[in-house]
Each structure stands twice: as C-alpha cells, then as structure tokens.
Amino acid sequence: MLAMIDDYEFDVSKTSYDEFESRITYFFATHQNLGGFDTYQNTGRHEEQILLKGTLICKSQKQLNAFEKMAARKRAVTMAFSNGKAFEILIFSLNKKRNNFLNTGEFLKQEYQIDLQVIGGSK
C-alpha cells in the first residue's frame, strides 16, 4: 500500500501514483519601515497542499470511479500512509486524461491528477 484515502487504496499493483508533491505555505504580514528593511510578522498556521499524479496503463475502465464518487461527497476524509502518518484532507479536484483508444471505444491509458488540501495535522 502506498497510501489510502478513506476506503480507496493506492497500491503499486492496482492504482499507483507516479508523483507525490507536497507544498507548505507559511503566512507573514509585511510592515514597511522608512529608511530600512521591511519587517515580517507571523500571521497564523501554515497551509499544506498535496498533489498526486499517476498513469494507469491497461487497467480497468472504472478504476477511478470509486474515488470520484467519494470526492463528490465533498467531505473531509483521512489520508493514511504505510509509514503510519495520517492527515485529514479535502479533495479539491480530480483531473482525468484518457488516450490510446481502441476501435471499441475503450482506452488503454489514463492519466490523473488529484489536488488535496490538508485540514488536520498528522494523527
């Protein structure tokens, strides 16, 4: 298991992701000083966003349907990793790109990108 979001499992043999990106943003207020450098003041907690990207080749046509239904509920879910870390997240978007179509209308390759927002710290 690479990761699990709610009941949806990202696994090397089934639905794996190729890229995991985490971006942490820290917020500061700027105070301008005459004749000197500006000063900065911490203005609250940080914000973390996670981006998952993957490519599914020759997998089921319905591989991401369960994930899409879960995301459509628009509620906070838990994301857990095999190393024991877990976060409370919101799913902001799911982008799917399909190509390499057969004459029957089925596709051989599907790329996806999932944008997540961490709303609760490591459990």
Question: Care to describe what's here?
Answer:
The protein is mainly beta and 123 residues long. 7% of the residues lie in helices and 54% in strands. The chain has one helix and nine strands; from the N terminus they run ββββββαβββ. The chain has one helix spanning 65-72; strands at 3-5, 8-10, 19-25, 28-31, 39-42, 47-57, 77-81, 86-101, 107-120. The chain has a seven-stranded antiparallel sheet with strand order 2-1-7-8-9-6-3, with helices on one face. Strands 4-5 form a two-stranded antiparallel ribbon. A hairpin with a 7-residue loop joins β4 and β5 (39-42). It starts with a strand and ends with a strand.
Salient structural properties:
123 residues; mainly beta; seven-stranded antiparallel beta sheet; two-stranded antiparallel sheet; 1 helix; 9 strands; elongated
- Mean pLDDT metric: 86
Structural class: mainly beta
Q: Care to count the β-strands?
A: 9
Shape, principal axes of CA atoms? elongated
User: What fraction, in percent, of the residue positions are helical?
Assistant: under 10%
Summarize this, please?
By secondary structure, this protein is mainly beta.
Secondary structure topology:
Layout: E1 3-5, E2 8-10, E3 19-25, E4 28-31, E5 39-42, E6 47-57, H1 65-72, E7 77-81, E8 86-101, E9 107-120
Antiparallel strand pairs: 1-2, 1-7, 3-6, 4-5, 6-9, 7-8, 8-9
